[in-house]
Design brief:
Helix content: 55-70%
Number of strands: 6
Strand content: 15-25%
Number of domains: 2
Distance between the termini: 26 Å
Order of helices and strands: HHHHEEEEEEHHHHHHH
Largest sheet: 6 strands, antiparallel
Length: 372
């Protein structure tokens, strides 16, 4: 049998305590988050009900961020309780090796890893997006991105500045500058841009457009009520591939933190930056960190094993809670520090994202070898 009685028993112990710890941590985070949201209640149409909706929809994101520390703490409590009750000692006396116990723990870790990966790729991004839309709409806020000068993007040979992105992804005060080498040949200003889905998935409809064209002897200014992005790029009737002004998926990605995005959204944003020859290293780091995050579940379980094996009869729940909290804090801090330092020193994003995981994995393996 793949899952024997021992595997199910150890797995049930770890799962029960880990989920209870996660539920407690998420509930506390939600309470503190709701208290923070009360500062905005009364602004615009933002009510207590909206704040409750927002907090409820952000709970999956909080669960995702707290999952690895919760598994570490839950494993320390679950396996620690088995050690305190001499269950691990009985298992050893019955001829069950530490390797067999470790295998059962790792099988549970794989199940937890799949669970958190599913949460991070399906429920969390969608819930976070809906939460932000509810909050922004109720507060009647505009989504200003990338600083005081708005959002700068590159589309082919054109440089685009977007002052404001509305919650429905309408773009306000759009400036499009086209260059021939270092020479500016045209500048377009549109009061707004909306998705023109009836034409092309990449097309946008520019409204209240003012076009300024420059040549060696004159400046020509024209004004139109509406103009398609495909007409601006002169590919409307040529059959060429229409360069995207900016995709809605990228705008969705820019709205939230990288932790709340799915790996697919991060990949799309990364490809967009690469296609336009822009720096994509920070987005690549977020992408590989997203891929590596579920693996942290297994590493956290392995990290708890040395403490359980080394003190099977000593130390109560309070001591194990303290150890778990300290290890969780150290992991989060070291993870942030090492990834950013590695990226700043020119390491590839893949190496930067995996370095903290590998370091803690080595520590866990050495700890298990010494305590087993």
């Amino acid at each position: 049998m793949i899952f024997g009685i021992l595997d199910r028993y150890i797995g049930r112990s770890i799962l029960t305590t880990s989920l209870l710890v996660l539920l407690t941590l998420v509930a506390l985070a939600g309470i503190f988050g709701f208290i923070s949201e009360l500062d905005d209640v009364g602004k615009g149409n933002y009510t207590v009900a909206n704040a409750l909706q927002y907090i409820f929809l952000t709970l999956p994101s909080k669960a995702y961020l707290l999952f690895a520390p919760a598994v570490l703490l839950g494993s320390l409590l679950g396996l620690g309780a088995m050690a305190s009750n001499s269950e691990l000692t009985v298992m050893r006396a019955a001829g069950i090796s530490n390797g067999r116990i470790i295998r059962a723990v790792l099988m549970t870790g794989v199940a937890l890893m799949l669970l958190i990966a599913l949460l991070g790729e399906t429920i969390m991004p969608k819930a976070e997006q809906i939460a932000e839309e509810i909050r922004l709409t109720a507060l009647e806020q505009r989504l200003s991105v990338k600083g005081r000068n708005g959002l700068w993007i590159k589309s082919g040979d054109r440089y685009v500045n977007i002052s404001t992105v509305m919650p429905d992804f309408t773009l306000l005060d759009v400036h499009i500058h086209e260059f021939d080498g270092v020479e500016l040949i045209s500048s377009i200003r549109a009061a707004r841009a909306i998705k023109a889905t009836e034409f092309d998935a990449k097309d946008w409809l520019l409204q209240e457009v003012e076009t300024t064209r420059f040549d060696a002897e004159s400046v020509e200014i024209t004004q139109t009520d509406e103009q398609l992005w495909s007409d601006v790029t002169d590919v409307a009737n040529t059959g060429e591939v229409l360069p995207n002004l900016i995709s809605v998926d990228v705008l969705k990605s820019l709205k939230g933190s990288s932790e709340s995005l799915s790996a697919r959204n991060l990949y799309d944003q990364m490809q967009y930056l690469k296609e336009n020859q822009l720096d994509s290293r920070s987005v690549e780091l977020a992408f590989w960190t997203k891929i590596a995050s579920p693996l942290a579940t297994i590493v956290m379980l392995m990290l708890s094993l040395p403490f359980v094996f080394a003190s099977q009869r000593s130390g109560g729940a309070g001591q194990k809670i303290f150890i778990g909290i300290m290890l969780g804090i150290v992991y989060v801090l070291v993870n942030k520090l090492l990834t950013q330092l590695a990226l700043a020193n020119g390491m590839s994003p893949l190496v930067s994202a995996s370095l903290p995981l590998v370091c803690f994995l080595v520590i866990a393996i050495l700890g298990i070898q010494r305590s087993a």
